[in-house]
């Protein structure tokens, strides 16, 4: 998988978040997007993944040399962010089963295996509304990291996690992301200090 940003820019109303950005991201590499609050970290992450369209320029995604239709790139990526909502009427087990129905898990893992791996086995039958904020974040990470996708996008992945949860996050990243294109938006070293390259949106021209 290879994603190229070609003279890309994104603006909201008249304010450019970034502009004239040329960048290439490829599988088996991990990238961190860092910078001050409001610098455009989450915006750039979403443009890379096709969640937001650029205001100018091009985002070109290729898999095995074949261009991926922008409207289909979602099939190749998984995404985790603290602002994403969970279906809180479901149990943890039901939520992962529902997710697996349209995006299978890696290595043919079963839902009980994933719940066990993320420390949520004891809460498998509990409605998500009764999960703590840290348990909800673990569930979000589980559906993203364990999805069989070639692109993994993480926005502030350790939000609401305690020390045990952060250790778990790093273990999962080490074990399950070697061959994937990973992009992490964060200001905290513990979330991205294993990345190969640092990207800073504030360095690209805003006009």
Topology:
Layout: E1 2-12, E2 15-26, E3 30-33, H1 41-48, E4 56-63, E5 66-67, E6 77-80, H2 92-100, H3 111-117, H4 133-145, E7 151-155, H5 163-176, E8 181-185, H6 189-192, E9 197-199
Parallel strand pairs: 3-8, 3-9, 6-7, 7-8
Antiparallel strand pairs: 1-2, 1-4, 4-5
Provide a descriptive summary of the structure in words:
This protein has 207 residues and is an alpha/beta fold. It has a single domain (2-203), classed as Rossmann fold, CATH 3.40.50. The protein contains six helices and nine strands. The protein has helices at 41-48, 92-100, 111-117, 133-145, 163-176, 189-192, and strands at 2-12, 15-26, 30-33, 56-63, 66-67, 77-80, 151-155, 181-185, 197-199. It has a five-stranded parallel β-sheet with strand order 6-7-8-3-9, with helices on both faces. Helix 4 (133-145) packs parallel to helix 5. The longest helix has 14 residues, at 163-176.
Structure in a nutshell:
This protein has 207 residues and is α/β, with parallel strands linked by helices. The chain has six helices and nine strands; from the N terminus they run βββαβββαααβαβαβ.
| SSE sequence, one letter per element | EEEHEEEHHHEHEHE
Residue share in helices? 25-40%
Task: Tell me the name of the CATH homologous superfamily.
Answer: P-loop containing nucleotide triphosphate hydrolases
Bulk shape: globular
Structural class: alpha/beta
The end-to-end span amounts to 31 Å
Biggest sheet, strands in spatial order?
A: 6-7-8-3-9
Helix count from the secondary structure assignment? 6
Largest sheet geometry: 5 strands, parallel
At CATH level 2, the architecture is 3-Layer(aba) Sandwich
Query: Uncertain segments of ≥5 residues (pLDDT<50)?
Result: none
